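hey so u asked for the seq, here:
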Amino acid sequence: MSTFEKLPRHVAIIMDGNGRWAKKHKLKVAMGHRKGTEALRSIIRESSDLGIEALSLYAFSTENWKREPQEVEALMGLILEFFSSEIDELDEKNVCIRILGDKAGLPEKQRQVLMEAEERTGKNTGLKLNIAINYGGRAEIAMAVRKICEKVQKGEMQPEDIDEGAVARHLYTHGLPDVDLLIRTSGEMRLSNFLLYQCAYAEFMFPAVLWPDFDLAAYHEALHAFGSRERRFGGR
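ran it, structure tokens below
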């Protein structure tokens, strides 16, 4: 196992490039997503073994519903397949699963599987595995504002109580550290509405490799690069 000078507490990954990988290999897009799921398994295991506190994965955004119906159906199917095949090992490895996003907007089977995974692993104390499904960063912030407004209306909070900490406590990621390292594969350089609030001081890395080809060597390279960066958080 590689040794690292400094590891991030919270890694976030935008798993980009499945479609381009499929096109490159003259396969259907669904096969690219399936290959991407295989890459995901090793990254989760390694994050757990390294003792990283939290790993957040962008699996399906609120905008992804606009894709071709066949691709959306394939992605929904992979959600069921992933949790069916991986939940036992994740639970055994003490991984705690949290779903980021609007579960109510998902098909019934997917919603039920995700809720069962959260309930089964909710008391685990190892890696906090956050999977963003039907997620949008702006929608998350709007949700937090609504919750705070409701508490103010009920007299449970006062306007002067609203600070950055109060907002953070009403996000999907409440109780977790902010993102230290954000990785987006495939060379695209944008956040795409992912963890906007939590990435305020994250280090960004944009490896050109497509997600299905993002292996442990590439992950270790990103982690080593993170360790070499000086983080000042607005200071000098």
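The first strand starts at residue 10 and ends at 14. The mean pLDDT is 95.
lmk if thats what u needed
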